[in-house]
Amino acid sequence: MNRAILHVDMDAFFASVEQHDHPELAGKPLVVGHDGARGVVAAASYEVRRFGVRSAMPMSTALRLCPTAICVPPRIARYREVSAQVFEIFRATTPLVQGLSLDEAFLDVTASVQLLGEPPVIARRIKEQIRARTGLSASVGVAPNKLVAKIASDLDKPDGLTLVPVERIREVLDPLSVRRLPGLGRKLGEKVEAAGLRTLRDLRTAPDAVLWPLFGRDTPRMRERAAGIDKRPVSNDVEDKSLSAEDTFARDLDDPRELDGHLCRLAEKAGERLRAKGLMTGRVGVKIRCHDFATFTRQRAIAPPTQDGRAVRDLARDLLTRWLAEHRGAKLRLLGVVLGELAPAAQLGLFERTGNGGARRLDSALDQVRERFGSRALRRGNMLD
User: Fold this and answer.
1) Taking a C-beta distance cutoff of 8 angstroms, is the pair 202, 209 a contact?
2) pTM for the complete prediction?
3) Number of domains composing the chain
4) Are residues 68 and 179 in the same domain?
5) Contact, 6 vs 123, CB < 8 A?
6) Which of 47, 104, 268, 272 is catalytic?
7) pLDDT tens for residues 58-82?
8) Would you say residue 233 lies in a domain?
């Protein structure tokens, strides 16, 4: 029996939420992001995409392409709220839900067909429920595997529903650009096209002599992907390998005190995300990018593992201080805090130091206040502007 996999992708999610919440923005060219010199487009409405504006584009480029674009700052808490509503709909349909981000997920509905109807019927029902619950549209790809479902969801945006049964996989995929292949990447995509491989059929039928210089040992896998072959299961227990918080500055910074303030804020944000996911960390790192784009990382194990915000902050500060001492006068354009070796916080009882109950209560209180009143409602003294 063939599997029935859905890939549900919300249409221009952040921008669509803003247009829904602010009807005066409906139908307007809208970009979500900060409009500083180094701002990046977090989301672009379909109206502004006609001008060539895309997500992850520098904001300065976006505003040059569309000078009439309206720029609004992101409201991550609001997007998470809407995302939670959407995922409730997913989980009411099937327990096999693999979230990829706030606005997209794979659903394995194979076992739901007998109860809820054929896969296209289930997909249509999900789209209707999302619109009724949130006022937003989603595009859905329906296929026998994750790879083809993801490609299909992007073929008829916005508000699309594309079915690719197993007998039509090659018919649908063969004429598509190689750029449609998830995970290929811009630079590798350029090399593939330069080698004369422009469609997925070209990639699927190319000899090893052409593919090996491009993909090396990944050649068999890439040929399979071009043919729409994908045996990966939809897994609802994908573990976080790491989480991070980082920021690109509006100007290059070299003042250690100013950098320390930014680092404390990022450590606080990373710790908040850690606790929200019910995790603890066994390794803390800092990511440092200089004005010339040279990038450095420094990391250290933390034992016992913790979700204590102060412990994360203090170790991150020590790592940054040591790096700055080795690179005096360095000007930084980006700073980040990375937490790795994550494990469920339920295990904390095995590792906790005695006497840190006050720190846990403080972190919990801070998290609750920020959840209700916003991330800037309550801050530690060393994070004040």
Assistant:
1) no
2) 0.67
3) 3
4) no
5) yes
6) 104
7) 899 999 999 999 999 999 889 989 9
8) no
